[in-house]
Amino acid sequence: MRRPHVRGSLDQVIDRARYQLDTFPRLAYQPLPQVHRSGGAREDGVHSRWRAISPLLDETEPETALDVGSQVGFFTLSMAARGIPTTAVEMEPRSYRTLLHVRDRLKLDNVGVLVLRLTPDTMPLLPSADAVLFMSVWHHLVRWHGEPAARAALRTIWARTGRILVFETGENEMPARYHLPEMGPRPQDWIASMLRQECPNATVRFLGLHRAADPYGRPCHRNLFGAVRTGR
Prior knowledge:
- The protein has 232 residues and is of the alpha/beta class.
- It has one domain (3-229): 3-Layer(aba) Sandwich (Rossmann fold).
- Helices cover 40% and strands 22% of the residues.
- The chain has helices at 3-22, 43-60, 74-81, 93-105, 138-145, 147-159, 187-198, and strands spanning 65-68, 86-90, 111-115, 129-135, 161-168, 202-213, 219-229.
- Helix 3 links the parallel strand 1 and strand 2 (86-90).
């Protein structure tokens, strides 16, 4: 009769040990202020993005959210804390294990985690949501599947977006191996144009230039956008 309790206690010990190992010596990118963990050199950019996104959430009042490429879940947990049921999509084990541990530690029952490698074949598995965050993922799709497939993925995600899509991608700072299209001297204009093409019935809004880092860890800035749905 006591075995389930013993197993549950053992699982908690193992989960805490795994969390300490996965986050040692610190979180590489996103911070988790909910549990007082910093996020390294990119932390300021994460907070500035959230300050830009929050007013759009106030305006559009989403009832559900989807965070595609959630990493350890800063944005997932932040939206959940606002009372928005949120699904995180992540494929990297260290990241989704950390998110699951923090979710349970905070006793958030409005957070789901979908472990998924995003490919053209798995795109149909994504759920629909009022608010969708699709940040720093598109350039990976271009690298592995080509620009036409990445644009098709953006169209699929937009079709699943009820009210607001937040978008960001790597730009001219990305190495040639990513095979990104030529964005010219003003990537902001190129990305805005692509969003207008691939997200019909949307008003595209510029949400500012935010700190980031290239694949070599060198500092850079990226453009953040919101596509607000105006019709179907």
